[in-house]
């Protein structure tokens, strides 16, 4: 393959960016800029020559498996995190060995769509070149490889590129993978929403040539005095102050959890046609234990825009956050803090000015659901879509030792999930869609292929009839052993914990009901516990803060109920709370039963978080 064909796919995507505003440098109102010594990440981004740093040199340094500190940060914008297996860290230290450095890669996949050919390619790479042998579906509709050693990193990018995939801007201080309500071919609106998710993703991508130079051996584009100001017209030479997250969502589904995102476009339709979006700005879930300047925050509704204004608004929100976001303190750098600092109206007016668009009053919509529709659904085009429940998003052929060592639920022992999906990919004519609940949709199945696909899915443990609705309503982040920030177990803890919650529900004759339960190994909140009815947030080994009171639609942040509990103590609490819920909950005239998250607020067990910043710590 020549260098030019090798780099074509990523380059085409970058080239698809259309600059909506001819000039995107503004007279930045200095009153809105936080003054003080800038965080060190600002220096390294600025000095990086548009994301190059000395990554290429580090790659050739085989004495260490890791990257030097600046490149450790920079490779994130290329979609990778340096990690090591925490289960073996102490042992290696004892043997005076450096940690077994490797990288985790996160692919860019707007709306989570991947073709069977692409799937088979990543399946093969995971098997041959990752230490865990798994494909991990994430809470943001993409997949991660864990455990790729330095000598295989370039091969990994070239392999992805050979099938039109990349990992550009899936991490770091840029706009991340753009989410979109899955099952997009279920209706015309879903298809249009998905098209916008792709356009927004491409519009906001970094334009630097660094990715294709380093990983795909493209010729270097020199930075000169003449071109330096035009290399990154949207993101700028210092990129954004912090990560930035965007979604396109089709109500009443809120399966991508808008309130976890800096910017969301809520699809508004009329007579089956997408006519525009309500724009939500400033959501985010992360916090730091013991630091009340950090908090989860719901997004604010700025108003309605017509579809034609989508890219201009996306760009204006990003550039306003670029110029006004806090570059001094990274803990307060996300858009949610910028909004609270400068004021919602001030931020919104600036966005209108930059985009040359005025927000109209918001159009009505409602979010009622978040879970994926597990099983088959029929699409408007006569095709069928099968949503598979993938516990924790971990696509792996589970072995006996996984159960002994990692305390997985014993009944999962027959799961050969990875082989199963690969076998389906070999015969599937549609595509796959990853969901933001870490599940996988086999999309676009013709009537005559349904039976064969279902047979394979059952054969490999991808469909199990005894999976409870509680299990499919539960989610955890990765945490140990790969996440360097994990304080408590999450993914490895959840299956067994859910079994115990199932038992409590059964005892109360509630087996056909579910509570949205989410576990996250630290307060960064990757498992979105801060939008759960019951949220566990890791504090230390087998210690969690217990939050209660989110709602089904994902529009309410839960509140702390008790701190620093062991998992046994949490089960004791849930045992008594669920018993109360079963007997004291309200049933409406239409027969609708009060949800657990609503009950705990009405019963005064926790107070409602109405205004994030004010009520969350009250
Ligand atoms: Fe996350 C960092 C995993 C979704 C908030 N997240 C991390 C890192 C990369 C740890 C690190 O910085 O070294 C974790 C890697 C673990 C591993 O071994 O794979 C990690 N985050 C994940 C994933 C894989 C969780 C999962 O189980 O699926 C999700 C990948 C998403 C993706 O494909 O892009 C993931 N992370 C989220 C979400 C949920 C969401 O976006 O819907 C959040 C909360 C929403 C938000 O941003 O407010 C989230 N992750 C964070 C944060 C806190 C950011 C902040 O505002 O302070 C960090 C730490 C940081 O950035 O400093 C973090
Ligand atoms: Fe790691 Fe914390 Fe994110 Fe879990 S929530 S993946 S422990 S950073």
Structure description:
- This protein has 618 residues and is an alpha+beta fold.
- Among the domains are: 3-79 and 168-355, Sulfite Reductase Hemoprotein, domain 1; 470-615, 2-Layer Sandwich (Sulfite Reductase Hemoprotein, domain 1), CATH 3.30.413.10.
- The chain contains 20 helices and 20 strands.
- It has helices at residues 3-15, 40-47, 55-60, 69-74, 89-94, 116-129, 153-162, 188-203, 210-216, 310-324, 335-342, 344-355, 400-406, 417-427, 450-459, 469-472, 494-507, 567-584, 596-602, 612-615, and strands spanning 80-83, 102-106, 113-114, 135-137, 143-148, 179-180, 246-249, 263-270, 273-281, 300-306, 375-378, 384-388, 394-395, 431-434, 440-445, 474-476, 517-520, 534-540, 543-548, 559-565.
- The longest helix has 18 residues, at 567-584.
- The protein is globular, with a radius of gyration of 23 Å.
- Mean pLDDT is 93; it is low at 1-5.
- It binds siroheme (SRM) and iron/sulfur cluster.
Summarize the entry for a quick read:
32% of the residues lie in helices and 16% in strands. With 618 residues, it is an alpha+beta fold. The structure holds siroheme and iron/sulfur cluster.
């Amino acid at each position: 393959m020549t260098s030019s064909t090798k780099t074509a796919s990523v380059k085409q995507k970058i080239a698809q960016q259309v600059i909506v505003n001819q000039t995107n440098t503004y007279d930045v109102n200095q009153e809105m800029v936080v003054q003080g010594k800038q965080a060190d990440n600002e220096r390294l981004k600025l000095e990086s020559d548009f994301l190059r740093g000395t990554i290429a040199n580090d790659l050739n340094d085989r004495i260490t498996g890791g990257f030097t500190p600046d490149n450790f940060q920079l490779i994130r914008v290329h979609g990778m995190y340096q990690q090591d297996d925490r289960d073996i860290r102490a042992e290696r230290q004892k043997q005076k060995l450096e940690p077994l450095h490797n990288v985790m890669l996160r692919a860019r996949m707007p709306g989570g769509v991947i073709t069977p050919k692409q799937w088979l390619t990543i399946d093969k790479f995971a098997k041959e070149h990752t230490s865990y042998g798994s494909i991990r579906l994430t809470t943001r509709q993409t997949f991660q490889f864990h455990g790729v050693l330095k000598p295989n990193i370039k091969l990994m990018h070239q392999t992805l590129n050979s099938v039109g995939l990349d990992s550009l801007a899936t991490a770091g201080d840029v706009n991340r993978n753009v989410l979109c309500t899955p099952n997009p071919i279920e209706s015309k609106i879903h298809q249009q929403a998905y098209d916008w998710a792709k356009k927004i993703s491409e519009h906001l991508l970094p334009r630097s040539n660094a990715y294709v130079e380093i990983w795909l051996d493209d010729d270097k584009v020199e930075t000169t005095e003449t071109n330096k100001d035009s290399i990154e017209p949207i993101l700028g030479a210092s990129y954004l102050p912090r990560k930035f997250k965007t979604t396109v969502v089709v109500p009443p589904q809120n399966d991508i959890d808008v309130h976890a995102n800096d910017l969301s476009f809520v699809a508004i339709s009329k007579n089956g046609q997408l006519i525009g979006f309500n724009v939500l700005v400033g959501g985010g879930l992360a916090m730091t234990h013991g630091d009340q300047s950090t908090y989860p925050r719901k997004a604010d509704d700025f108003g309605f825009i017509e579809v034609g204004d989508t890219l201009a608004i996306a760009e204006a929100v990003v550039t306003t956050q670029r110029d006004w976001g806090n570059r001094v303190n990274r803990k307060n750098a996300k858009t949610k803090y910028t909004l609270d600092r400068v004021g919602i109206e001030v931020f919104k007016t600036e966005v209108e000015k930059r985009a040359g668009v005025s927000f109209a009053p918001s159009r009505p919509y409602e979010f009622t659901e978040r879970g994926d529709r597990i099983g088959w659904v029929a699409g408007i085009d006569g095709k069928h879509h099968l949503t598979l429940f993938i516990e924790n998003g971990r696509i792996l052929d589970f072995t006996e030792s996984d159960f002994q060592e990692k305390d997985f639920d014993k009944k999962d022992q027959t799961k050969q999930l990875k082989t199963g999906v690969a076998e389906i990919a070999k015969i599937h004519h549609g595509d796959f869609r990853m969901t933001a609940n870490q599940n996988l949709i086999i999309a676009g199945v013709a009537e005559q292929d349904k039976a064969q696909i279902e047979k394979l899915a059952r054969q490999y443990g991808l469909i199990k009839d005894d999976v409870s609705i509680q299990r499919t309503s539960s989610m955890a982040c990765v945490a140990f052993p790969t996440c360097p920030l994990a304080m408590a177990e999450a993914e490895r803890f959840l299956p067994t914990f859910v079994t115990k919650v199932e038992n409590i529900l059964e005892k109360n004759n509630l087996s056909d009901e579910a509570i949205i339960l989410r576990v996250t190994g630290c307060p960064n909140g990757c498992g979105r516990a801060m939008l759960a009815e019951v949220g566990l947030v890791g504090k230390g080994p087998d210690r969690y803060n217990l939050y209660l009171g989110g709602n089904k639609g994902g529009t309410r942040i839960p509140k702390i109920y008790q701190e620093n509990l062991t998992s046994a103590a949490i089960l004791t609490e849930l045992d008594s709370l669920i018993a109360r819920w079963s007997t004291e909950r309200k049933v409406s005239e239409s027969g609708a039963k009060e949800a657990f998250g609503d009950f705990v607020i009405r019963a005064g067990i926790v107070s409602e978080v109405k205004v994030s910043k004010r009520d969350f710590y009250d």
